[in-house]
Structure formats: structure tokens, C-alpha cells
Write a structure and sequence with these properties.
Elements (H helix, E strand, L loop, with lengths): L16 H10 L9 E11 L5 E10 L1 H8 L12 H15 L6 E5 L2 E3 L6 E8 L4 E14 L3 E6 L6 E5 L5 E4 L6 E5 L6 H8 L12 H4 L2 E6 L2
Parallel strand pairs: 1-8, 1-9
Antiparallel strand pairs: 1-2, 2-6, 3-4, 3-7, 5-6, 7-11, 10-11
Amino acid sequence: MYHFHSWHLIRPNIVVAAAVAAVAVMSASASAHPHVWVTVKSELIFAPDGSVTGVRHAWTFDDMFSTFAIQGLKSKTKGEFTREELAPLAETNVTSLKEYEYFTYAKANGKKVEFIDPPADYYLDFDKKESVLTLNFTVPLKRPVKAKDFNLEVYDREFFIDFSLAEKEPARLVGAPAKCKLIVRRPPEMNVALAQQLSQLGPDRQDPSLTIGAEYGNRISVKCP
């Protein structure tokens, strides 16, 4: 039995033979990108002085990946998992995310913003009705920034993981000045030819030239006077 206790098991550049086999079990179309689907909700956190201090994420994994992730985990109640029982899995996932910059990219007034490692306040929730896991974590900025134009993007550069903004309340401002305006931009619909091209990429391939994830990334912008 294979366990998806880490993002390392779903990324093509560090997948071992056993993990590739596990990915293959996950889907009849395992040779196609993407392999994992994540629904995103994000909050931009502001300090009392109006500066952005961090980003709080809630990422809900697809039911198939979630099912594999919890296989073999022990719980007091069958079919249910507490945050405490999921804590080791949450820690492993968050630690592994560092290598991929948490799939979170931000700019303030056009300049790249850096985040602190490791993230804060992380935990996993399990929805027994939908059988899905949600990873909650906060990535603080290394230095709070006051910006008239703050842009946040969430994506996987190689589109191995498909991040999509939630249909309802995909983004929120927490503690922002009253006149700040939130703008959410969803990626355009992918054309058939490109989808077919991606379907031919296997789980063991990492193409440095592939930047499709950025082109189809989720964008959250804040405009402040």
C-alpha cells in the first residue's frame, strides 16, 4: 500500500518508482497532466497600519487524492479524522511545499515579495461527507509591505497540479483599509490542442521550459489608494 504523505510523491522530478505506481492507481488516465486537483481559497492579511503581512490558504484536494492520502492512517472513529490525527501528515505536506515556493507568488508595486519559512498555523481538515482533505496554512511575508498594487498568484509551473479558485468566496481581505479593492482573475479556458499536448506528458517528466501553469494561474489583486 502506498501513502501520499508528502508533496514529494506527486511531483515528477522526485518521484520514485513506487510513487509512480501509486499515481498510476489514482486514475485511469494517470499518464495525463494534471495529476492532482486543488480548490483554492486565499486570504490576504493586513496589519493595522495597512501593510500586507501574509497570505492564508485553504486548499481542498480532490476526493481521489484525499482517499489515497489517508490510507493507512489510524483514527479513533472510523471514516473520520481529527486535526490531531492528521497533524503528522499536515507537517510533512507543508515542509515539502517549501521546495516549490508554496506554489504562491506575490508582487508588491511590481517587485517580488518573499515569504518566511516555515508557514504558520498549518493543519489538515477532513470532510467526511465529501471525503476530501483541506490543507490550511499561512505564509507570512518576510517584511510587511504597504502597496498600492499587490498581486498574488497560485499555480504549479508545470501544471502537474491543477489549482483552481473556489466558485464561492475564492479570496478575502482581512483587516484591509476600507478603500482597498479586491480583484479576482480566473485563468482562461484551455483550448483542446493544448489539453491534448499536456495529456501526453507522463508523471516522470520535468520539462524546465514548460511554463503553462503560470499562463493559466489564478490571480488575486488588491488595489489600495
